[in-house]
Amino acid sequence: MLQFTIITLFRGMFSSPLSHSILKKAQENGWIAVRLVDLRDYATGRHRVTDDYPYGGGHGMVMKPEPLIRAIEDLRARLDRPRVILLSPHGKVLTQPEAHKLAQEKELVLICGRYEGVDDRVKSFVDDEFSIGDYTLSGGELAAMVLIDAVARLVPGVLGNIQSLAEESFADGLLEYPQYTRPEEYRGMRVPEVLLSGDHERVKSWRRDMSLQMTRERRPDLLRRADLSTEERRRFRAGANLYLALVHHPVYDKNGQIVTTAVTNMDIHDIARSARTYGVRRFYVLTPVKPLQKLALKIIHHWEEGYGSQYNETRKEALSLVGVGDTLDDAILEVERDCGVKPRLVATTARPGQDRTSFAALKDMLKEDLHPYLLLLGTGWGLAETVLAQCDYILEPIEGDSDYNHLSVRSATAIILDRLLGKE
Ligand SMILES: C[S@@+](CC[C@H](N)C(=O)[O-])C[C@H]1O[C@@H](n2cnc3c(N)ncnc32)[C@H](O)[C@@H]1O
């Protein structure tokens, strides 16, 4: 049995929420009990005043320390080791794991503030401060009711079906999967086929997938802290849907002619290392020149399997991301093979222009969906117009505060990756 004791100026506010449904039954069955204490009983004087003007001036009134501290001390003396909680916007936000911990207690004392809040000295007499979210309520009563509801349903017995608890939102740190009931079709919207299949394994895996996807889209903060398998972590980490392609043809030379540039050792190494650092899925080096492809493969092989792999393990890790191909179509095909859909193409260029996509917009797109994106990096004097015309997006250029804009493709890649995938 969990006993809640509430210190409040407005006892009447609690009657309705406590006299319906689960909270009503929980009290009737003796799993929880709620005792309401009127703060005015601890106030002195003819008017039993519980608030006063704030020192230093300002709007509103502040709850006086004496009645509150008297009430806390009295309850500590009378109850069996109660945990005393102040509902306050300054408190830690009430989460499901915190609710679970509170459900283990025997005695919880909840203090409801009013007006501009409580005199700060009261805080040294409580065990915890809890907020129910980042907004300001007019008083702690509704916050206390929210806490009671969230905690009471975790007290053994209150909810008959323990399984439903295990699958709810936040139970495993994720949002719950979408739920459907009859009819099978409503206004053209059908219940997902898998839920009608009767195949429990498929249903289970669909639900897990939906739960992960919804959490990723709506609460990426939760996903970062959730308990995921290694495979799930890999799928959902930042950069997992970003691919890079270093294009050696068709690119411009300084006279605006279409040329094929040479593959360089430095580009492969540095871009692979940046790719690995920022969690990029794969990096393709594209050149139609066979001897240059061979050279690229030789470099990769040296570090992946040859002498270099023993000499420098971290370099091996970076170079294992590199693939070699003829043309952009090869890279598109590879991505499609890897994740089942064609990637969206994003060109990079040092040339400003209209309809460029901002770094912030692309960053959001990468976060929002799991669709793969292939970012094209130009060599020489930049990607040919024919490549740009093929792309879904052209990323805005990186610019310094000067009229010089000749970053190496390696430096540009590092800056771009940091803007798209770097920790904030
Ligand atoms: C109007 S609020 C006081 C707000 C205070 N002046 C401030 O800006 O932080 C009055 C009381 O409502 C309760 N309260 C308001 N917002 C809350 C929240 N998000 N979570 C928990 N309690 C809240 C607290 O008990 C608080 O003392």
Task: Outline the structure in words.
The protein is α/β, with parallel strands linked by helices. The protein has three domains: 2-160, SPOUT methyltransferase, trefoil knot domain (Alpha/beta knot, 3-Layer(aba) Sandwich), CATH 3.40.1280; 185-235, Trp Operon Repressor, Chain A, CATH 1.10.1270; 239-421, SPOUT methyltransferase, trefoil knot domain (Alpha/beta knot, 3-Layer(aba) Sandwich), CATH 3.40.1280. It has 18 helices and 17 strands. The chain has helices spanning 15-18, 21-28, 65-78, 96-103, 140-152, 162-167, 193-196, 200-218, 220-225, 230-236, 265-277, 290-304, 307-311, 313-319, 328-339, 359-368, 385-390, 409-421; strands at residues 2-8, 32-38, 51-52, 62-63, 83-93, 107-112, 128-131, 185-186, 189-190, 242-247, 251-252, 258-259, 282-286, 322-325, 344-347, 373-378, 393-394. The strands form five sheets. Strands 14-13-10-16-15-17 form a six-stranded parallel beta sheet, sandwiched between helices. The longest helix is centred in the middle third of the chain and has 19 residues, at 200-218. The chain starts with a strand and ends with a helix. 29% of the residues are buried. The mean pLDDT is 93. Residues 87-89, 112-114, 116-118, 131-133, 135-140, 143 line the site of S-adenosylmethionine.
